[in-house]
Write a sequence for this structure.
């Protein structure tokens, strides 16, 4: 039982590494560097405009810290078969869960530390916090996350619905109060409170678990959902076999399908266009990136940052749509229809052009709405046209042939 | 001669599953491909529909081979898989339309035919549904309708009788008789031997990747006079399986 978590963790990490390698491929790392650089620049530019009188910013920071506590859970790595095979050793499961808690603790706290580090410049500016009190704030955040992870493990045991609901509510409520006191009154007061909460949570856990049975089915479902979330994230960048997008009819989008000619040359286009509109996986990706991109563009001025963002987002969308070409490869009819591969590629390129042009138009409108001059909008239009041409006519062909 | 398979050696990897197989299906003929699980029926079909490439030997369809003119070759084939395979994002109507586009069929004329078939298989009120959510039997009917609206010269039907209700089996056999009378060839693999015995014109009996015997039922019976009276009995004795009765 003691080695079980270690073995599973190793396997889990191997799998995660495998996907991370796929996600952080060369192209993406370059795009990401641009993106992070752009965000960093925007952040520092924005900081210069902040004045110490704007206390509402502290409220926002508090909310961010509070909501940020929900990032990262405990990786129990429980599997469906465990409900059968580990059932006889239920008591020993606690040792297993403690190991899971420990592993997840470091990962979760790293995220919290980053979060606090990101908000520090604002707090120094507006809330006039300094050295030691910032450290107190950091420890407060870590202690709050600690209490939350402990609660997560406690909830793996079969509690009554009331117990579950109230302990959850209490934990979140106390965390909010603690953060509010830290920022409004004194970080030291918050620190003391947070440590008391973390200790209290552990005390309750120690009281509960020896007398309570494990909620196997719920725990396994919870872990499966957690993993699905991770796979969904990876699925944004690469094909993950565990994630299957669902299909929605979306009748209200049928009007977009009428422009495609209905003949043998466009048979794959018929399939691709419907698959794109009704499958949630790829259409969701396009919608998300288009909306995020448009919002960022609206706020990123009219200089080189806007152009870089525009180019990167367009590239990201086009690049991530490429696997859609192979979406129907496992359906036998795709291969036995009397259609040639050249048509299939041409049809796919047409779809790609349509989608990227739509996105590009939305991006240009976003920039135009932010009071750009006609010349600036014009440059963006030219950049988009060239990029779409290169992506579709050259890059897609190169990758898919 | 519609389909002619000669000296086919093939399989999924380096090790051949099929060892030198030769048979043909004439126009207007229903040939039954019979064999135990793993005998090589599906492998043979996968070779004919072009999913696998032969290691040796050749497959020709009215003198066209896949290598010479893939589009003309594929144009002549309609395939009904054993497990229904559907496009998740297409409605029933769109599956039919997709088939028409892919085979370059005339829409108006084909829809007339399609509506007849939909009525026969009681799918005519489900045109706007996603067949991916249908029951297995209904999915299979969708596959049948999609295949029979084409004007293929060769119909390949992989185990059609399991999962279909008796009425649909009856209707399918009628459809097969109809396309046969128009000069199409039909190759059908099945385990339901008594139905096959009644309806197939000829049989190809596969065992362990080789053709055990082929011919009409009378020919096979004449070749193996001691093996019993039904295709079932003959087949079991040929594969070396003894039955306790």
């Amino acid at each position: 039982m003691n080695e079980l978590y270690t073995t599973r963790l190793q396997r889990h990490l191997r799998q995660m590494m495998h996907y991370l390698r796929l996600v952080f491929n060369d192209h993406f790392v370059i795009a990401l560097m641009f993106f992070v650089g752009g965000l960093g620049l925007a952040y520092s530019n924005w900081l210069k405009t902040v004045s110490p009188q704007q206390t509402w910013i502290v409220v926002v920071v508090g909310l961010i810290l509070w909501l940020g506590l929900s990032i990262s859970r405990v990786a129990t790595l429980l599997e469906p078969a465990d409900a059968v095979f580990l059932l006889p050793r239920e008591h020993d499961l606690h040792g297993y869960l403690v190991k899971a808690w420990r592993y997840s603790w470091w990962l979760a706290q790293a995220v919290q530390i980053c979060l606090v580090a990101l908000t520090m410049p604002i707090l120094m500016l507006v809330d006039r916090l300094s050295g030691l009190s910032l450290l107190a704030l950091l420890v407060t955040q870590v202690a709050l996350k600690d209490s939350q992870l402990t609660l997560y493990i406690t909830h793996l045991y079969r509690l009554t619905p009331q117990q579950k609901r109230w302990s959850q509510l209490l934990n979140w409520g106390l965390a909010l109060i603690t953060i509010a006191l830290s920022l409004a009154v004194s970080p030291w007061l918050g620190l003391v409170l947070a440590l008391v909460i973390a200790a209290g949570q552990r005390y309750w856990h120690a009281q509960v678990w020896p007398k309570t049975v494990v909620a196997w089915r719920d725990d396994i479902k919870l872990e499966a959902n957690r993993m699905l979330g991770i796979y969904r994230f990876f699925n944004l960048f690469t094909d993950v076999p565990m994630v299957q997008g669902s299909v929605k009819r979306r009748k209200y989008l049928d009007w977009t399908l009428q422009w495609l000619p209905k003949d043998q040359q466009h048979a794959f286009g018929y399939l691709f266009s419907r698959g794109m509109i009704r499958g949630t996986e790829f259409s969701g990706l396009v919608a998300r990136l288009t909306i995020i991109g448009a919002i960022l563009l609206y706020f990123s001025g009219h200089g080189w940052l806007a152009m870089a963002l525009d180019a990167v987002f367009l590239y990201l969308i086009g690049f991530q749509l490429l696997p859609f070409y192979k979406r129907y490869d496992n359906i036998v009819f795709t291969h036995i229809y009397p259609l040639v591969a050249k048509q299939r590629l041409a049809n796919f390129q047409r779809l790609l052009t349509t989608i990227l042009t739509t996105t590009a138009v939305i991006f240009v409108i976003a920039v135009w709405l932010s009071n750009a001059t006609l010349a600036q909008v014009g440059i963006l239009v030219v950049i988009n046209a060239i990029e779409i041409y290169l992506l579709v006519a050259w890059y897609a062909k190169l990758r898919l042939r | 001669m519609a389909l002619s398979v000669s000296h086919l050696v093939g399989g999924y990897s380096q090790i051949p599953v099929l060892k030198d197989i030769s048979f043909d299906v004439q126009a207007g003929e229903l040939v039954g491909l019979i064999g135990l699980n793993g005998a090589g029926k599906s492998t043979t079909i996968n070779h004919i529909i072009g999913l696998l490439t032969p290691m040796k030997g050749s497959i020709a369809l009215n003198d066209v081979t896949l290598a010479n003119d893939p589009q003309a070759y594929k144009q002549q084939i309609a395939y009904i898989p054993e497990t229904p395979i559907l496009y998740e994002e297409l409605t029933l109507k769109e599956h039919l339309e997709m088939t028409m586009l892919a085979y370059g069929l005339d829409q108006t004329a084909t829809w007339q035919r399609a509506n007849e078939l939909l009525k026969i298989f009681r799918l005519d009120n489900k045109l706007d549904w996603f067949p991916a959510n249908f029951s297995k039997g209904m999915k299979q009917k969708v596959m049948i309708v999609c295949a029979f609206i084409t004007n293929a010269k060769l119909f390949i039907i992989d185990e059609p009788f399991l999962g279909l209700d008796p009425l649909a089996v009856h209707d399918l056999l009628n459809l097969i008789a109809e396309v046969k009378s128009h000069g199409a060839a039909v190759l059908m693999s099945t385990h339901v031997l008594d139905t096959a015995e009644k309806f197939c014109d000829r049989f190809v009996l596969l065992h362990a990747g080789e053709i055990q015997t082929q011919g009409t039922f009378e020919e096979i019976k004449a070749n193996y006079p001691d093996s019993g009276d039904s295709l079932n009995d003959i087949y079991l004795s040929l594969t070396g399986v003894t039955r306790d009765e």
Remarks:
- The beta strands of chain B are 3-10, 18-25, 30-34, 56-61, 64-65, 77-80, 154-158, 185-190, 202-207, 210-215.
- Chain B has one domain: 1-237.
- Chain B touches chain A through 29 residues (CB under 8 Å).
